[in-house]
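Researcher: Let's continue the batch. This sequence belongs to CopG family transcriptional regulator, and it's 140 residues. Same format as the previous ones, please.
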Amino acid sequence: MKKIQLSIYLDPETFKTLEAFAQRRGQPKSLVAEAAIAAFLSPDDSDRREAAIAKRLDRVARLLERLERNDGITLETIALFIRFWLTSTPALPEHSTPAARAKGAERYDRFVEALGRRLASGSTVLKEVSIDMHASEKPE
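Model: Same format as before. Here are the structure tokens for CopG family transcriptional regulator:
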């Protein structure tokens, strides 16, 4: 079949890219351009792109749902701890406040160290809660 000649205008950067690609492949620029146009106009190509985008969007949606779930667990854990701490911790007498602050600073430093070790080990409360929830859902 005889091919029809088409004259097109390309910006210099696009032309340089086309020329470099054709040289790397050892093919004429017209063959590379023809293949690119055919791929662009192919209905299968747009279906593949749409399917790939849908797959990525589904993955992003699942990740966002997991993040939302984890945030909910985190906020509920913090709220429960604060409520428990506020209801079970008596007020301190005025004369023991400096000692309590010093002890609080010491405990906070130990807490930060323990948190660092736990995060470095990969063990998290969310994983433990998830494991505990799955274990309690399974009938024995």
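Researcher: Any comment?
Model: The chain has a mean pLDDT of 86.
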